[in-house]
Specification:
This protein is of the alpha/beta class and 310 residues long. It contains 9 helices and 9 strands.
């Protein structure tokens, strides 16, 4: 008599189990915070082509929110735009309640809101008020939305949460100690919740972004004379764009990423992996010669550069 076939037995040859046939988000309700940003908007646009039931776009910018909603609906997908400030706890909880009232569930939650809030500076010059603002902008709202939508995901035995952290939460960022602390907190929270709920068909992961064009950073606004520096700063040789990040978010938000649990995926063109190595016209170096050290008037020269390069 043949022994019963184990549920864990492997079939041969390997076969496609069919999970990836057709739209990757078929009939899902997705909510994207920071959804009208350059990256969040790209996430919404990519999701719209994957068969979702609805996409909820949450952002503080009303005109851009309307533009993203119009694009999603033009693709034949239900969309709702919610203009609110997620750093305000009352507005954040109200948004969550409103979405559950209208749609009954959120299957895919993308926590895309985040910002350094203030320019870099000495930690001792910061204030408790700034610490709280950075906390509410980068971490508190992640708690709020996850707390609201995770129970339904667990009960339905399917859900995806994708949080936005940053490479700045994984390395030193001089002058941005408070911001880096909360971005590291996003990854720590992601890991712990992910392990808690993985057995219930829910995955929680994060993406860590760097050197990507967005409304918040000035990379794309440098004068053309700085274009030749981009391959020095970014191993991939170019800045990232919203669709580059959106593709990774889609992977994590669909069944393609079903076995990825508690991971922080670097989507940074290689900046973190480079680990302090830079491409020069002749070779890679880890001790680049900074022209600022050889200028007769460093302060005057700095004043002539874009602010983030001073």
């Amino acid at each position: 008599m043949n022994a019963p076939r184990s549920a864990h037995a492997l079939s041969y040859p390997p076969v496609d189990d069919g999970r990836w046939a057709g739209p990757l988000l078929r009939d899902r309700v997705a909510l994207v915070t920071g959804g009208a940003g350059a990256i969040g908007g790209a996430v919404c646009a990519l999701f719209a082509g994957q068969g979702p039931d609805a996409i909820v776009v949450v952002d503080v910018d009303e005109p851009r929110t309307a533009e993203v909603v119009a694009h999603v609906t033009s693709r034949g997908v239900r969309a709702r735009g919610i203009v609110c400030d997620l750093t305000d706890e009352g507005q954040a909880t109200g948004m969550c309640a409103s979405v559950l009232d209208e749609f009954g569930r959120v299957d895919v939650l993308v926590n895309g809101l985040g910002h350094a809030v203030a320019p870099g500076g000495d930690f001792e010059a910061t204030t408790p008020e700034l610490w709280d603002e950075v906390y509410r902008t980068n971490l508190r709202h992640v708690f709020t939305t996850t707390h609201a939508f995770l129970p339904g995901m667990r009960s339905r035995q399917w859900g995806r949460i994708v949080n936005f952290s940053s490479v700045e939460g994984k390395r030193a960022a001089p002058g941005l100690a408070v911001y880096t602390a909360f971005k590291a907190g996003v990854d720590a929270f992601t890991q712990s919740v992910a392990v808690d709920v993985a057995g219930h068909g829910v995955t929680v992961n994060s993406v860590a972004v760097d050197k990507t064009l967005s409304y918040q950073v000035g990379y794309g606004r440098f004068p053309e004379e700085y274009d030749r520096m981009v391959p020095v700063w970014v191993p991939a040789g170019r800045y990232g764009r919203g669709p580059d990040i959106a593709a990774v978010v889609l992977f994590l938000a669909s069944d393609l990423g079903a076995f990825v649990v508690g991971q922080s995926i670097n989507v940074d063109g290689g900046t973190l992996a480079a680990g302090g190595w830079y491409r020069t016209p002749t070779r890679w170096v880890n001790s680049p010669l900074l022209v600022q050290w050889f200028e007769d008037d460093p302060e005057g020269a700095a004043a002539a550069r874009p602010p983030t390069l001073r």
